[in-house]
Specification:
The chain has 264 residues and is an all-alpha fold. The chain has 2 domains: 113 residues; 100 residues, no CATH class. The chain contains 9 helices and no strands.
């Protein structure tokens, strides 16, 4: 049995009934997610936060044990050598997910600044952010920038879940997900003179607005179709091939899960 599933059954509780993570608890979560004993393929806290945000606003619920496995890149509990740190890490991560859900449960105009959803993002070390930006031979930006890994986590959640297809295939997809794509790429390929850092103060609010807007889009979609996206009555396009689940073997034949291979 999946260890994350067993753990969640033993520690299930109403996380939304407690106060939001304090600054000290958030710092502790950053520290625990950076533990060198974690799987080398485990997500950073930035990426995990973007991933959880996409799950929270997305088309259909993802079981806790599934996203824990995705974040830690293993079906077994992290930090088995230290049960105390293990328990604390999982508790804080679930608490953060509950905070995301609570913040996104109301409209931005109806909440205080302190209660508004904001992404978690690590500070970029001095010298790692190359400006003006430079591209490598593949057209990818070199170096680091703020919210890079948060946006990558959000993108990964979308890319490995076919239930996002109605939004991705429609005319609103590019507009609603544009800020996430921009922060993931680090530059605008249609505007070579664009500098993410120079526009950051204006773009950050747009990113938060987009998160709420994506949430609202899926609410309207479910209200119109009356079912979850995966149901035949809700599909906006016809598939030529069977749907590949995020935990299914990748159809390319690599032997890896789809979410860790072509789905990434």
């Amino acid at each position: 049995m999946n260890e994350f599933f067993s753990w969640n059954m033993l520690h299930n509780r109403l996380w939304g009934t407690q106060p939001r993570l304090s600054d000290a608890e958030t710092d502790e979560l950053f520290e625990l997610m950076a533990d060198p004993s974690l799987n080398d393929d485990a997500m950073s806290i930035d990426m995990a936060d973007g991933y959880l945000t996409a799950i929270a606003v997305g088309p259909s619920p993802v079981p806790v044990h599934d996203w824990l496995e995705d974040i830690f890149a293993q079906p077994t509990l992290p930090l088995p050598h230290d049960p105390v740190r293990q328990q604390r890490l999982l508790q804080l991560l679930l608490h953060r997910y509950a905070d995301i859900q609570a913040a996104l449960a109301v409209r931005p105009a109806e909440v205080s600044v302190d209660a508004l959803y904001t992404p978690l993002s690590s500070e970029v070390p001095e010298g790692d952010c190359i400006t003006p930006y430079k591209l490598d031979a593949k057209g990818e930006r070199i170096g680091e920038w703020e919210l890079k890994y948060w946006a990558e986590g959000f993108r990964l959640a979308v890319a490995t879940d076919d239930d996002w297809e109605p939004l991705m295939a429609g005319p609103e997809g590019a507009h609603l997900l544009g800020p996430m794509v921009l922060y993931s790429m680090g530059y605008n390929p249609d505007r070579p003179d664009f500098q993410l850092e120079a526009e950051g103060a204006e773009l950050f609010p747009s990113l938060i607005i987009s998160v709420y807007a994506v949430r609202d889009w899926w609410k309207r979609y479910r209200g119109t179709h009356g079912t979850r996206p995966g149901h035949p009555a809700a599909l906006s396009t016809v598939r030529d091939t069977p749907k590949v689940g995020r935990n299914d073997p990748c159809p390319c034949g690599s032997g890896n899960k789809f979410k860790k291979c072509c789905g990434a």
